[in-house]
Amino acid sequence: MVRRYDGKDLAKVFIYHGIIEDTERASMKVCCPFHGDVNPSMVVDFEKGEFFCFGCGVKGNALDFVKLAYPELNDIQACVLLEQILKSDEVRELNVKVKKRKKKQNKQALIEAMDYYYGLNKTDWTHPKTKEEHVILEYMKGRGFDARALSVGRCKANYSIAYPMIFPILDNGKFVGWVGRTMNRYVEKKRKYYYNEGFVKRTTLCGTYAENCIPYICEGYMDNLSIRTRGHIENVVSLLGWHISDEQVKKLKKQNITTVVSALDNDEYGKKGTEYLRKFFRVIRMPYPKGVKDPGDMTAKQFGVAKQKVQRKLDIDKEAER
């Protein structure tokens, strides 16, 4: 039977190697020992018994840590060494207690999210001042966005190293949370977006949807920003995923919305999500150009052509109804 290593085992391994002194918190950030870290970039979750470094991408449990620390060992030797560490004089007598994190009530979490986002400095993206702001602007330019797009999205420079830019999530103008976006490819493999504690995706429509409008429905926040700024379309909502929830459907229905444009990704899941939308709405599929996966890959010219095709489809349907 394969031994399962938990948070207590991970804590003992970290204590043994002098990385931490105690486990007074359910999770903490430490300097990663695998890439010469100076500013703490490794997150250790003692509840789950896992670690992940936002700097170099290493991750795993107690055994994975030993394998990384002693690469000359094979799997069996690493298991033997780990058991020796857990039974060593340094940690054998330790009564490691792992605290469970307390879940915040939604109301309190929202207050803290508002305080955090609105407490950050505003940025004039046409004249960025700090090094962090310049890095964000250059990164976004590489993705086809400009300073105006960052202003439209109300982007700010975040304190987080892993998620250096932050956007407010507005549900028909109402602040319901914030989302951080990474620029690090290692972090992106694990988690591209980071939401504030207490944020609930299934009850949120990120964007604007006026009464009786025909909104463009997309997946991620950047898709939303692309459609608004390059496509010059006002009514755009992100599901923050590919599958619309019952709560999201109710919100659109409450606005007397009967027709939507599916701008979900041009892939297997986007197509599944589009078919699911047809259960509740009359759906016009975004006419993606060949080779384009999502709205973030489209240029302003391509959006112009797509909008014309969508409008043509709407006009044809109106004629058919007469």
Main features:
single chain; 322 residues; alpha+beta; DNA Primase, Chain A; Dna Topoisomerase Vi A Subunit, Chain: A, domain 2; 5-stranded mixed β-sheet; 4-stranded antiparallel β-sheet; 11 helices; 37% helix; 16% strand; elongated
Blueprint of the fold:
Layout: H1 7-16, E1 27-30, E2 42-45, E3 50-53, E4 59-60, H2 62-69, H3 75-86, H4 106-119, H5 131-142, H6 147-152, E5 156-157, E6 165-171, E7 174-181, H7 185-190, E8 193-195, E9 206-207, E10 216-218, H8 221-229, E11 236-238, H9 246-254, E12 259-262, H10 268-277, E13 282-285, H11 300-321
Parallel strand pairs: 10-11, 10-12, 12-13
Antiparallel strand pairs: 1-2, 2-3, 3-4, 5-6, 6-7, 7-8, 9-11
Helix pairs in contact: 1-2, 2-3
